[in-house]
């Protein structure tokens, strides 16, 4: 490993705190070259074979994961090397939203799976497993039930609309990328309780007050943060508006800033400003994807008192 980020990712994988899929993604983000990654893993495996056979087996398994998903990894490396993606703060909210629209229109044309989760390595089976893990958590926590109406901010190709459709009364997905929405509609065409809408990215204006029981955002808030905290504030305000009393706001991954303490502080501040109670403030509840969970509930509004 010739890059600190690569070494860190592989170390976390070896220690069991990071999945192989995430380790490969982080390695490619650091150095988007599949051949170089394979060569580095192979060299490390040979070096460890005699003195640390267990470590060698782990490294060999990681190299095998790259080999089995080589085409997807190469596609991801090309996407990363193109420079179309960036985690730099946007010049303005308008620039940030326009950037996201271009990015995801372009990304879905390269690979549906990779466009919503690079760690899927372009493999539909890996994406399905990651999606299932999130859905199982949502069901186990009682955030989705057959009586609940759900809104997803940043639905991408509609993978959660498909997966959650059997578990909820209805689910609506919104995205700033028209091509993402087109793909999502094709995938969900037969599902009667799924609605999909291309949105402006500014707010939740198409929806009435108190119209949802759950607002969820899976890896979409980082793009709001990148576009400016004013847009994040607006979405907290809007989520509070469209949620019914006692409803849930569930965010997987708040930002890509690499500072969990700062994310926790921001979520706490936003919750206080917009009448939410924080239940989970940056916990790791998944194994395949290392997205961090934030769960907030809207306060129950007091019943009006009867005039005497």
**How much helix is in the residues?**
40-55%
Low-confidence stretches: 302-308
How many β strands by DSSP? Answer: 7
The major sheet is characterized as: 7 strands, mixed
From the spread of the alpha carbons, the general shape counts as globular
**Helical/strand content category:** alpha/beta
Per DSSP, the total helix count is 13
SSE order, one letter for each helix or strand: HHHHHHHHEHEHEEHHEHEE
How much of the sequence lies in strands comes to: 15-25%
> What is the rounded distance between the termini?
76 Å
Rg is 20 Å
Query: Strand arrangement, largest sheet?
Result: 3-2-1-4-5-7-6
Mean pLDDT: 92
Describe this structure in words.
It is a single chain. The chain has 308 residues and is α/β, with parallel strands linked by helices. Helix content is 51%, strand content 16%. It is built from 13 helices and seven strands. Strands 3-2-1-4-5-7-6 form a seven-stranded mixed beta sheet, with helices on both faces. Helix 10 (178-187) links the parallel strand 2 and strand 3 (194-198). The radius of gyration is 20 Å and the shape is globular. The termini are far apart. Mean pLDDT is 92; it is low at 302-308.
Task: Write the topology of this structure.
Layout: H1 4-15, H2 20-30, H3 34-48, H4 53-68, H5 70-81, H6 93-110, H7 112-116, H8 124-140, E1 149-153, H9 159-164, E2 170-175, H10 178-187, E3 194-198, E4 212-218, H11 221-227, H12 229-242, E5 243-252, H13 260-273, E6 276-284, E7 292-298
Parallel strand pairs: 1-2, 1-4, 2-3, 4-5
Antiparallel strand pairs: 5-7, 6-7
Helix pairs in contact: 1-2, 2-4, 2-5, 3-4, 6-10, 6-11, 11-12
């Amino acid at each position: 490993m010739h890059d600190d980020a690569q070494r860190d990712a592989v170390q976390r994988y070896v220690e069991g705190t990071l999945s192989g899929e995430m380790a490969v993604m982080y390695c490619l983000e650091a150095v988007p070259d599949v051949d170089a990654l394979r060569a580095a893993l192979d060299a490390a495996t040979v070096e460890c074979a005699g003195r640390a056979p267990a470590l060698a087996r782990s490294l060999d398994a990681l190299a095998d994961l790259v080999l089995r998903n080589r085409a997807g990894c190469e596609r991801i490396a090309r996407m990363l090397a193109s420079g179309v993606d960036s985690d730099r703060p946007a010049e303005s909210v308008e620039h940030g939203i326009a950037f996201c629209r271009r990015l995801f229109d372009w990304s879905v044309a390269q690979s549906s799976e990779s466009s919503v989760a690079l760690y899927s390595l372009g493999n539909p089976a890996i994406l399905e497993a990651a999606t299932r893990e999130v859905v199982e958590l949502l069901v186990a926590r009682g955030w989705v039930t057959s009586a609940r109406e759900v809104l997803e901010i940043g639905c991408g190709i509609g993978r959660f609309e498909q997966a959650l459709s059997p578990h909820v009364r209805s689910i609506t997905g919104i995205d700033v990328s028209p091509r993402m929405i087109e793909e999502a509609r094709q995938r969900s065409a037969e599902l009667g309780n799924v609605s999909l809408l291309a949105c402006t990215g500014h707010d939740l204006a198409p929806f009435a007050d108190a119209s949802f029981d759950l607002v969820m955002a899976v890896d979409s808030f980082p793009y709001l943060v990148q576009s400016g905290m004013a847009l994040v504030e607006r979405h907290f305000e809007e989520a509070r508006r469209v949620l019914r009393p006692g409803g849930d706001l569930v965010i997987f991954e708040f930002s890509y800033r690499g500072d969990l303490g700062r994310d926790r502080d921001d979520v706490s501040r936003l919750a206080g400003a917009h009448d939410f109670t924080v239940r989970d403030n940056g916990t790791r509840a998944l194994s395949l994807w290392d997205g961090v969970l934030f769960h907030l509930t809207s306060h129950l509004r007091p019943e009006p008192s009867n005039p005497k």
